[in-house]
């Protein structure tokens, strides 16, 4: 598997650069068999969708496929160049994808189907040119206000969701996966500033 930087931790905005590197190392945008490059996004939510749109619109891969819940497929979706498929059918596409990005939030009660895909990433990855995961800066835990860098100790507690990300990071790191530790991501109406604004403008009781 092509591995431009085995142990690197990147910010989300470096995703396109990494995909461009893997495309160049794999012979433009074709895999070793000469087939078109296909990015599978596991979890086409808010973050996964933006990554997919950027990857599709800039042409760093030839095709983008994202997993969604079955009920999402029943609703109309935009013609944005991204193919959507139920998560339970992700394994059916496994042999045809060249790049995989995990953006699914981790919770203690992990679904059996999620574990099956994690097993695939560990055991059936020879055909993959790149594996990425959107993790969280929550893995650093509480540093009492001190400056935190990529090399800072991981102080999240063992009973926190962040500890699950640490486990999966280590798991994917062993197969050359690249980790994107991201801070909280908000849309245009849910930032901390919007919360303060709504609180201050709320009518007094």
What does this structure look like?
It contains six helices and seven strands, in the order E-H-E-H-E-H-E-E-H-E-H-E-H. Mean pLDDT is 79; it is low at 1-10 and 24-28. 31% of the residues lie in helices and 17% in strands. A seven-stranded parallel beta sheet has the order 1-7-6-5-2-3-4, with helices on both faces. The longest helix is centred in the N-terminal third of the chain and has 13 residues, at 46-58. With 205 residues, the chain is an alpha/beta fold.
Q: Label the structural class.
A: alpha/beta
Strand percent estimate: 15-25%
- The order of strands across the largest sheet is 1-7-6-5-2-3-4
Order of helices and strands: EHEHEHEEHEHEH
Please give the share of residues in helix.
Answer: 25-40%
- Determine the N-to-C terminus distance: 61 Å
Average pLDDT, all residues: 79
- So what's the overall shape? globular
Q: Count of DSSP E strands? A: 7
Low-confidence stretches: 1-10, 24-28
What profile does the largest beta sheet have?
7 strands, parallel
Radius of gyration: 18 Å
Counted by DSSP, the helix tally is 6
């Amino acid at each position: 598997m092509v591995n431009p930087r085995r142990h690197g931790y990147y910010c989300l905005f470096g995703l396109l650069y990494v995909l461009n590197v893997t495309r160049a190392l794999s012979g433009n945008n074709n895999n070793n068999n000469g087939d078109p490059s296909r990015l599978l996004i596991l979890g086409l939510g808010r973050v996964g969708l933006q990554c997919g749109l950027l990857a599709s619109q800039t042409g760093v891969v030839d095709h983008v496929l994202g997993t969604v819940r079955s009920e999402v497929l029943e609703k109309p979706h935009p013609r944005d160049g991204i193919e959507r498929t139920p998560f339970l059918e992700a394994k059916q596409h496994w042999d045809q994808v060249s790049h995989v990005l995990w953006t699914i939030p981790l919770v203690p009660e992990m679904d059996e189907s999620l574990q099956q895909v994690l097993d695939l990433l560990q055991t059936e990855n020879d055909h993959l040119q790149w594996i990425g995961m959107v993790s969280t800066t929550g893995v650093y835990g509480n540093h009492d206000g001190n400056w935190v860098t990529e090399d800072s100790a991981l102080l999240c507690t063992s009973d926190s969701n962040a500890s699950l990300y640490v486990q999966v990071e280590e798991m994917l790191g062993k197969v050359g996966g690249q980790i994107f530790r991201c801070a909280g991501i908000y849309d245009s109406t849910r930032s901390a500033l919007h919360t303060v604004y709504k609180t201050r403008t709320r009518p007094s009781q």
